[in-house]
Design goal:
alpha/beta, Quinone Oxidoreductase, Chain A, domain 1, Rossmann fold, 2 domains, 13 helices
């Protein structure tokens, strides 16, 4: 963590052979078939989202069940699954209350770098225990995961597309549908057009939003192809441009960058009575400053959205059905397929904004 870019030279990710323990109770051994490169991985590499090291990185993946641990139900060897980066216990107060994305044991295990059981299944590296990344550790040929992290996928979905449903689609589409509750005819602005931001754009289009404004620091041709009615090149007058495109400000503004300054712009652009939703993950020490009085005098809403406020066993199948119907063209988000030994170069590409979503494909 913290090695300087370009990563093709500094090589923060090292490919090594590791020992992997057998799956425990409620767990399973998977063969990873595809794993997405996400800014949440990049934020660990660059240190803006500190995690315990050393770590087997990666959290957005799809694969095949190889073997079940004791007492693991609902799956069979050969099943194709997509993995969610929040294991949901189904028993804590948040899960019982319908807020599975906030699963309390899931949050504890993710922060500790363990599986939901509290155990680690990786062997040591250089005498140090290896951490799991968000219960997944996707950049590996085989992994052990909690069954609570997995959802069965139809065979018709290619693995590299299926992987995107575990993070980009759940986070982006979920933020629009579940967190913001966008309705047909409402205006939406999406700040940040990476995989999650463009997934949010797809979700807004699916909801019938309009006008639909896409904002980024690089030109957004793909955003227009995916349904944006207007694009804004981020700069000093971002807020004014978004307001002009939406007749005074969007009903909903979504921030996907993980920057407190971008979130401040998204909030400033939102119309009176509107809702600003953030899914980005700034460094924990970064602070947001907004006019506090506006929350009351303008009846504004500012809310966070983690995992798109989704319940993966419910929302993954729902979004997959929309994809198979042609209403959620998730495949448009995938711009590059990589071999595992190209992964550091892939993160250089992600950091520079040269791609949307990349996937390591294991043959």
């Amino acid at each position: 963590m913290g090695l300087p870019a370009p990563y093709a030279g500094s090589r923060p990710l090292e490919i090594v052979d590791l020992e992997l323990a057998q799956a425990g109770t409620g767990e399973m051994l998977l063969r990873v078939r595809a794993a997405g490169l996400c800014h949440s991985d990049l934020s660990v590499i660059d240190g803006s989202r500190p995690r315990g090291m050393p770590m087997v990185l990666g959290h957005e993946a799809a694969g095949e069940v190889v073997e079940l641990g004791p007492g693991t139900k609902g799956f069979a060897p050969g099943d194709r699954v997509v993995l969610s980066f929040v294991p949901t216990c189904g028993e804590c107060a948040e899960c019982r209350g319908g807020r599975a994305a906030l699963c309390e044991p899931g949050a504890v295990s993710n922060a500790a770098g363990t599986l939901l059981s509290g155990e680690r299944r990786w062997g040591e590296l250089g005498g140090e225990p290896l951490h799991h990344h968000l219960g997944v550790s996707a950049f590996a040929e085989h992994i052990v995961v909690s069954a609570r992290s997995a959802v069965v996928m139809p065979d018709r979905v290619p693995f590299e597309i299926a992987a995107l449903f575990g993070c980009a689609v759940l986070t982006g589409v979920g933020a629009v549908i579940n967190s913001a509750g966008v309705k047909a005819g409402q205006s939406v602005a999406v700040f940040g057009l990476g995989g999650v931001g463009l997934a949010a754009l797809l979700g807004a289009r699916l909801a019938g939003a309009g006008p639909l404004v896409a904002v980024d620091r690089v030109p957004a041709e793909l955003a227009r192809e995916l349904g944006a009615t207007d694009t804004v090149l981020a700069g000093e007058d971002t807020v004014e441009q978004v307001k002009a495109a939406t007749g005074g400000g969007p009903d909903h503004a979504l921030e996907t960058v993980g920057s407190e300054t971008v979130l401040a712009d998204a909030y400033a652009a939102t119309r009176r009575g509107g809702t600003t939703v953030t899914v980005g993950l700034p460094h924990p020490e970064r602070m947001l400053s907004i006019p506090a009085v506006s929350l009351v005098t303008e009846e504004r809403t500012l809310k966070g959205s983690y995992l798109g406020s989704c319940n993966p066993p419910v929302d993954v199948p729902r979004f997959v059905d929309l994809y198979l119907e042609g209403r959620l063209p998730v495949e448009r988000l995938l711009t590059h397929r990589l071999a595992l030994d190209e992964i550091n170069e892939g993160f250089d590409r992600l950091a520079s904004g040269e791609c949307v979503r990349q996937a390591v494909v294991f043959d």
